[in-house]
Amino acid sequence: MSEDKKNHNDENNGNGHDLLDMRNYSMEKLPDRKKTTVEQWMAVIGAPLAIVVFVLFAFIVDVPYLHNIESDRITSEQASEIYATSGSEAFSQKNQFMLAIFLAAIILWITASIPNYQVSLILIISLVLTGVLPERVAYAQLGHPVMWLNIMSFVLASMLVATGVAKRFALWFILRFGKSAGSIFISFIVINTVLSAFISATTAKAAILLPIFMVIAAVYGADGGDKKNNFGRSIVLQNLLNINLGAGAFVTGSGANLLAAALISGAIEGNIYFADWMFAMFPTMVGMMFIGYIVAMKIFFPLKPEERVPQIKGGMQRLKEEYNKLGPIDYQEIKTIVIFLVILALWATDRVHGVSATAVAFVGAIVALLPRIGIVTWNDVDIPWHLMLFSAGAYTLGAGFNYTDLPSLSVNAFFDSLGIGYETDFWVLYMLMTGVMCFSALFFQSKTMRTMLFIPIAIGVAQRFDFSIVSLALPTAFMIEYVWVLYFNSKPAALLYETDRYDLKDAFKFGFTMMVIGYFLNIILGETWYRWLGITPDGVFGLF
Q: Where are the chain's structural domains?
């Protein structure tokens, strides 16, 4: 074998492609994952189980929606009047269908018996055919502003790949921080935190960072399929964690955060400012990132000695040679960097100029796609349309909840079943509302949907029990970004799951542990840091 051929094989590492070519790690080129035995069985039973559950809850099981409506403030005569005037039969049937469709969709998403975008398509048409949603409302969710923000963000992210800026940055990153595996993970904490202050779409952050950490994973010998290692598991799952924690550090970190702040501001007839959210959550989320680093590296995914050093032949010198081949930065790369920085700056200052993040992304994408003076063509753009359809189904599910008022009725029944009266202690309500928001992330794909459901409920609970709205609603909003456990819990989770560097067991044991830690940390902060900031009112008794 010639030396050139040998070097070529070393470069490809047996995978048939350049390990440092970012285009090989675009979302549409991620290899199909090989399912484990458990996942294969789940896929087999998923569809039949979903059908059975749908039939049971749609036509057989009688769900008592207004169960325990009598309370200290509602007489039996008033309860009877509510039953008589609410159109209970028709209303109940729609709620039955809504609940049945929701449960069936959750089963299909969890078991992955059919692709997630097909689940969304089935969900959308089911809501139409059962009469839960009008057609115009159901189909319109594909045009949700957040959907357009994600599409335009993918156009902007494609600039970094098509011009080579992403590859240049990845190589510089490895050369600068690749002397030890630990420094690489810590550096991603910093990168995620900085980007989160400017980018209001977690999927866009995932798309930008994916090629970078996939290259680093390849350099450190982290292959997918049957050759998974702890470096690969850790770098993908820690980035998934940090992408979402970073978004939670700033009110501009995601559209759901901004929606929550707007709902709370409207209720208090005041404002939840950028600084209010940042002072409360920035140290919290950065601290959680470092806790995640320790939990991953010391408990769940400790690195073997061979995983702590680069595996590419020639080590760091090989990477330095690849970096030098790129030559000086060219005009197209400079334009890409300038446009990208302008977009980030406009996203970060939208409260000053009043232009929405979606509109800013639209303008940036138009400039990037302009003939002759632009940077990319449409063929260069990498948009995961299956994820877009997946998201449309989640938003349609949220619209169905709003039309049927199923969440509100369910939560009220939940309060009644627990015997929670009007003299309930603040901390019981605090732990309940933050817990519902936190752990509901295991079952929902859309942060926006959870925000629309649970923030108004938190506001109503605070008003009902005569507590400060901010004291309950804001800590509840702080749990919005806890969407990293299962692959269908968020678009970044669905995207990074396709890298095939970890399986569901890895994701659950690490992700659920971090979710529980975050929940209890939020309780401790409610008694300490949030009380000092004035979020927790002084008039409530201490928890400890």
A: 37-143+385-533, 146-252+269-380
